[in-house]
């Protein structure tokens, strides 16, 4: 399995930047919840946040070779998300709350290595968040 062969995020990025769709899929899997959450916090709309996340990963796929520092992948993806959300707001086609636009611009990675217990807690919080969001009636 590809996930077992590629052990670091840099391996995923290197492989994906040569056109390996499976490696890029692992990047998407790792960051899709974060990007969807950022987009949802900015828009307040689940469907729109999913569309924005899809756009983020499309742009990332197209421009992955331009990523200068693989250690900053998360910040780079957040920057793409921020720009796409800003464009949605500028176009004014959606009723978007602006509460979280500053999230990505203030988001800094203090360490490229997240302790496993913090990562597990974060993943559990994200699952709970999405389960709660899915229960909200349209």
TrEMBL record:
<keyword id="KW-0805">Transcription regulation</keyword>
<dbReference type="InterPro" id="IPR000838">
    <property type="entry name" value="RNA_pol_sigma70_ECF_CS"/>
</dbReference>
<dbReference type="GO" id="GO:0003677">
    <property type="term" value="F:DNA binding"/>
</dbReference>
<dbReference type="Pfam" id="PF04542">
    <property type="entry name" value="Sigma70_r2"/>
</dbReference>
<dbReference type="InterPro" id="IPR007627">
    <property type="entry name" value="RNA_pol_sigma70_r2"/>
</dbReference>
<protein>
    <recommendedName>
        <fullName>RNA polymerase sigma-70 region 2 domain-containing protein</fullName>
    </recommendedName>
</protein>
<feature type="domain" description="RNA polymerase sigma-70 region 2">
    <location>
        <begin position="27"/>
        <end position="92"/>
    </location>
</feature>
<dbReference type="InterPro" id="IPR013325">
    <property type="entry name" value="RNA_pol_sigma_r2"/>
</dbReference>
<dbReference type="GO" id="GO:0006352">
    <property type="term" value="P:DNA-templated transcription initiation"/>
</dbReference>
<dbReference type="InterPro" id="IPR014284">
    <property type="entry name" value="RNA_pol_sigma-70_dom"/>
</dbReference>
<keyword id="KW-0238">DNA-binding</keyword>
<dbReference type="InterPro" id="IPR039425">
    <property type="entry name" value="RNA_pol_sigma-70-like"/>
</dbReference>
<keyword id="KW-0731">Sigma factor</keyword>
<keyword id="KW-0804">Transcription</keyword>
<dbReference type="GO" id="GO:0016987">
    <property type="term" value="F:sigma factor activity"/>
</dbReference>
